Amino acid sequence: MKKSTSKYELKGLSNDELKEHLELIGEPKFRGGQIYNWVYDQLIFDFNEMKNLPLSLREKLDKTCTLTSLSFLTSETSKKSGTTKFLFSTKDDRKIETVLIPEKGRNTLCISTQVGCPLDCKFCATGLMGYKRN
Q: N- or C-end of the chain: fewer Cβ atoms within 10 A?
């Protein structure tokens, strides 16, 4: 299980891993499936909004776990190409860049799943950071 400071990071765990974690903290296994549904089907990341979980469990999760997401920092659009770069920050303050590239009749979205990049694409500043981690 991933840790975020002193809290367990639940985001990124599979359905089975969530069920296992809930069992480890003394809760019924099926609660992991409920949390999985809230996070991955309904895009809810606040335990207090997970209304089919008992209040006592929501309070326990709030104290012991986290559902960390990226934080949006800034965006910049090129006047020349129309390309828009979006900069996000991870929970440990690493930077991830996403690029929207407009093309005739469609848009291409380059979504980084890494901190840094081993490639050296000329349109993307992420490669300049060097590869750090997934």
A: C
